[in-house]
Design a protein that fits this description.
By secondary structure, the protein is of the alpha+beta class. The chain folds into two domains: about 1-45; about 55-165, no CATH class. Helix content is about 35%, strand content about 25%. The chain has three helices and six strands. It has helices spanning about 1-45, 60-65, 100-110, and strands at about 55, 75-85, 90-95, 125-130, 145-150, 155-165. It has a six-stranded antiparallel sheet with strand order 1-2-3-6-5-4. β5 and β6 form a beta hairpin. The relative contact order is 0.14.
Length: about 170
Amino acid sequence: MAGVRGGTAGARAGRGRTRWGVFAAVMALPALILAGLVAMVIRFMTSDYPLGGEPEAVPCTEALAFGGAKLPKGAYDGQCTVQTWLDTDYHAVFRMPRAAVRTWLTDTYPEGPEPGTDLCDTGADLCLNLNTQFATPPDDAGADAVTVNVTYEDAGTAVVSFSAFTV
């Protein structure tokens, strides 16, 4: 009988440990889920890009090509980025000779509207918008829309802000 009791006691001890292990795992699961949710909330509240899609530097030739354009002659100080998440947005800022801006825009987008001052960003002296059914980027461009805002920095220099994006 001593052997039987020992066998029964051993079986009970094994079952008890298993229950405590499962119980501990089940009780730890809500704490792990809560910790994950807290981490997600902290990332969302502290990141400029909580869902991803942080801007990345790219060559300016790539940024302008997405909008069906090429860097104009004499362009310098180019800083270009791409941001991709749901949509793709290329942005380029560069300087160029002020006298060549209109010619560059009309040569680049011959089917587009005449560059003007309507619907320009605040502070821009000239702009071009290709984002309606009447004025779209060229067929070979990857972008659905292109906006170009030009600010005259001085008598000889223009700062161009170029954006090509999908919608």
